[in-house]
C-alpha cells in the first residue's frame, strides 16, 4: 500500500538518487552542512533560475548583482548584526546537551519571537532529554568569524555574511549610478549565507551554510505599504506557479514583538512540513530606510536617491522578499513526492514542475540489443544540446521507468525494434504514464513544447 512521506524516506531517496549527501560523510559528516549531488545541483540550479527569471528577467524594474561573501566588518556593525544577531543558548548541567533556549518554549511562534532577545530563565523548565537542570540562557552570536590576511588579531576579524542583503545595500549607489534606475526599482541577488545555528536540523531545513535569493526593492517613502502588499502577492504566486499545493501554503503576519530590529512589518510564506507543521520558507519584510540610513551614518557616504520631480534627495524605503534556496529545494521535493499503486507495485514519483526537474528527458533503449544501441545513442546525442538528459540501459524497461519517476523526469523516450523500421520513438509521460509514438524528426520540437507548458 502506498504510504505517507516521512523524512526518513525523503533523506534516503535524496542519497540513493544523488540529490543530497551529508557533507564530508566519509569522516562522519559535520552538522548543518550538506553536499548536493548530480540531481541535487541541477534541481537547485533550476530553482534559482526560475526565481531569477521571475524577478529579474521578466521584470523591467529589477537588476541583479553578485557581491562578495566576506565584507568589511563595519558592514555588520552598521546592519546591527554584531549587536543583535544572536540566539539564546542553554546547556544541561546533567547530560551536557546544548539547546536553543527559544526551542524549549511551548509555542513555535512564541519561540521565534525571542530571536535576538534574551529569554526568561523561569519559562524554560528542565532539560527535555534527561530532566536535568539547565544553565541560565546566554546570547550566542550566529555569525561565523574568520581572519583576513596572515595575522590573527582583532584588526583582521571578518565575518561570513549571515544574509546576502547587506551586499545589496552597500552597492545601492554603485547600481544606481551604473544602470541609472528610477525609483521604484529592485536589486536581486542569489548567494551563500552562513549562520552558526545552535541547533541545525530537519535535514536541509536549518543549515549552517545555505543559499538565499533576496530582493531589496527600493521605493518612495509613503508607497512602501502598498509595495509590500504587491510583493507578498507576487511571491506567493511564484510558489503556486511552480506547482506547490495551495492548501500547503500559508501567509503569517509577524507579531510586533517578533519583528527584526529593522522591520516595520514582516509577512512569512510558510509551508506545511511533515516534521514541523507550518514553517517559514520566505519572509517579506518592510525594512523601511533603516539599512541605507545606517550605512550612510557608518560609512559617511550619502546613500540617497535624487527625486528630479520634487528636486530633493530621499532615502528610499525597502521591501525585501527573502527566500532560502535549500528550504525551497526541500519544499519542492516534499510537495512533489507521491507514492501510488501501479500493477501491484508501489511507484514513487516526484511530480516536480517541468521547469524544475533535474532531468528533462531520459533516453532508454528497450534493451541492450546491439541493433538498438546505435539509434538510441543517436537520439541521445540529438537531444543533449537542447535538454538535460540521461541515458539508461541497465535492467528492465519497467525498472528504468521507476528510476526516472523517482527523480521526477517528465519524459522518457524509448527506442525499440519498430524504431528501426519507422524512425518513431515512444514518449512516456511521467504523470499519466501514457505513451505516444512520435517521429524522431519531431522530437526536439515536441519535447520543447511539452517542457514549456
Ligand atoms: N535578509 C533577511 C533574512 O535573512 P531570514 O528570515 O533570516 O531573513 C530568509 O532568512 C530566508 O532564508 C528564510 O525564509 C529561509 O528560507 C532561509 N534561511 C534562513 N536561515 C536559514 C538556515 N539556517 N538554513 C536554511 N535556510 C535558512
Topology:
Elements: H1 7-16, E1 20-22, E2 34-36, H2 38-57, E3 62-64, H3 74-79, H4 81-84, E4 86-91, E5 98-100, H5 108-112, E6 138-141, E7 145-147, E8 157-159, H6 165-169, H7 172-179, E9 185-194, E10 209-219, H8 224-241, E11 249-253, E12 265-273, E13 277-288, H9 290-299, E14 305-307, E15 312-314, E16 317-324, H10 325-336, E17 337-342, E18 345-350, E19 361-365, H11 373-383, E20 389-391, H12 397-407, E21 411-415, H13 417-422, E22 424-429, E23 435-439, H14 443-452
Parallel strand pairs: 3-9, 19-20, 19-21
Antiparallel strand pairs: 1-2, 4-5, 4-6, 7-8, 9-10, 10-16, 11-12, 12-13, 13-16, 14-15, 17-18, 21-22, 22-23
Helix pairs in contact: 2-10
